[in-house]
Amino acid sequence: MSILLNSSTRVIVQGITGREGTFHAEQMLEMGTKVVGGTSPGKGGTTHLGVPVFNTVAEAVGATGANASGIFVPPPFAPDAIMEAAANGIELIVCITEGIPIQDMIRVKDFLRGYPKARLLGPNCPGLITPGAAKIGIIPQRITSPGHVGLVSRSGTLTYEVGSALTAAGMGQSTIVGIGGDPVLGLTFRDVVEMFERDPQTTHLVVIGEIGGSDEERAAELLGKGTRLKTVAFISGRTAPEGKRMGHAGAIISGNRGTAKSKEEAFKAAGVAVAETTDDIVGLLR
Amino acid sequence: MKLLEYQAKEVLASLGIAIPPGRVARTPEEAAAAFAELGPIAIKAQVPVGGRGKAGGIKLASSADEARTAAHQIIGMDIKGFKVPLVYCETALDIAREIYLGFTVDRDARANILMLSAKGGMEIEQVAEESPESISRLYPNPWRGPLDFELSQLVFEAGLGELARPLVAVIKKLYRAIPELDAVTAEINPLVITKKGDVVAGDAKLETDENSAWRHKDLEERYGSVLEGDPYEVEAKKRGLTYVSLDGDIGIIGNGAGLCMSTLDLVQRAGGRAANFCDIGGGAKAEVVENALAVILMNPRVKGVLINVFGGITRGDEVAKGIVTARDSLQMKLPLVVRLSGTREEEGRAILRQHEIEPGASAWEAAQKIVQLTRVEGSFVPTPAAR
Predict the structure, then answer these.
(1) Which of A110, A243, A251 sits opposite B143 (nearest CB)?
(2) A11-121, superfamily in CATH?
(3) What value of ipTM does the predicted structure carry?
(4) Using one digit for the tens of pLDDT, what is the confidence trace for B180-194?
């Protein structure tokens, strides 16, 4: 088993004919993801990468029965693409786009309240991968292998780093989920941890957080109530100075909340092992 | 973008909110002229950080000479790393009471939050901690904004019922900064009720979202260039890099914000101090690497550079070639350690070795190596000439 995504998930790619959309849709197809089509307004009726292209999500869902979508469109259009997917019954919406204005995302989040079945991952995230089965997004298949470790992270390349270390150590993954680094996000650490908790295949869990916000603390709170998953947490940004925004991470420290220290302490209080460096994660997980 | 006080007040005025009469002064003479025009004034340093009063950045002037002297002292002063470019000369208000009013993004709620408190003038964080019940809150609907009755409820809840009408009007005006300017923080503290009963913005903080800069080019043009920021950050911005200056001596380049932050952590753990944070994004293209190196090498404090690239889909040999090209075209002589991982990483490491660049096997090893190299270069080994 896995969470959110498996080999029978029917995926469309919004923005499939663009440069990014094309490249990553190809990678998704290559690993066997059931990509059943894509959208690109004005290019409906054509075929791209061997799958049908539609003008709208409504057309795509009608023709293919898609239930998941990967969004690869530029920031000015991505908020609308997310809402279009939700309004047309897509249940898993993965938005890779980086740089969406916060106010647009706040409106999108409000809109999604009307579609409780739609789950949004991202934006500004690497997506998710169920090794050996399917992926939506940009996580390289090469660094993964099927197994029992659930991995959830805010960062992209740091996820690859840890995924690759796990794979090298022979510890395969059930699903790897990148929730994204923006301040206003879809699925949270806590949501994803709950899903792993319910997934019988997952026996171990790695949480990779970073400074800013208090999503890590909330996940720690949940884990503190008792979990069957052997868990290790890692927080990046220990040495980031206060008030400096480290790029797109949306990592702003305010007061005592959101610091690496408060997050590490929250995990420790919950009985979760905290890794000092990413190199220590594998050892602590064994 | 964080606006300076006078800029934020200009924006508030354009939204229809009353502000005290004031003038910007770039020289002591301009401050004296402002006194001649306005009478007794406060001379306020314009910097995008709090705590300027304690740092000596606010002085009162009751004569032209005092205004001149105060401006002379404040302009050019360093406040928390910012050189004061100019002062704002503002007439003092006849204060009857002070209120707190602010909007910001509540990350945890994934929504905008509006806060109103009768306890204005103080640090709102302190008020929030000591008596959270004295701050009334509202999450306005992000599509239509707050409705009149919602605001009226909020004002009564805050114990400010007798001011309901003027306060609701001011809050509605301030709210416009969110949809119209993509404000992520819009705060008036204190919102002053004068003895005459007018509602005036005593101070103003306004921060807009960097991600929405493309739809507010006018704002950037009007206010973007006033502040003399960190020269490396300014240059990095021109080159389209995500770069933050820090106070150490080891330059850092990484791909991805999380990876880059964890690289800073590793360098510190190894006993070094990072000179910067520089995220070159997923692809790690040669041109971007070169731009990043160029900016880092501008800083004379930098004694060595650590590049940490995890190529997911990016090919290691291409990244290595890009790094070699960048180093050569910039004629870089300082120690350089590269940690490279990803597709064809072995080929990439071989290319680095051929060009006398140290590859690190893991990020931790690479961090230790650069710390060691920069220490040796810096102090311990005397050069042949010195011997």
Answers:
(1) A110
(2) NAD(P)-binding Rossmann-like Domain (3.40.50.720)
(3) 0.87
(4) 999 999 999 899 999
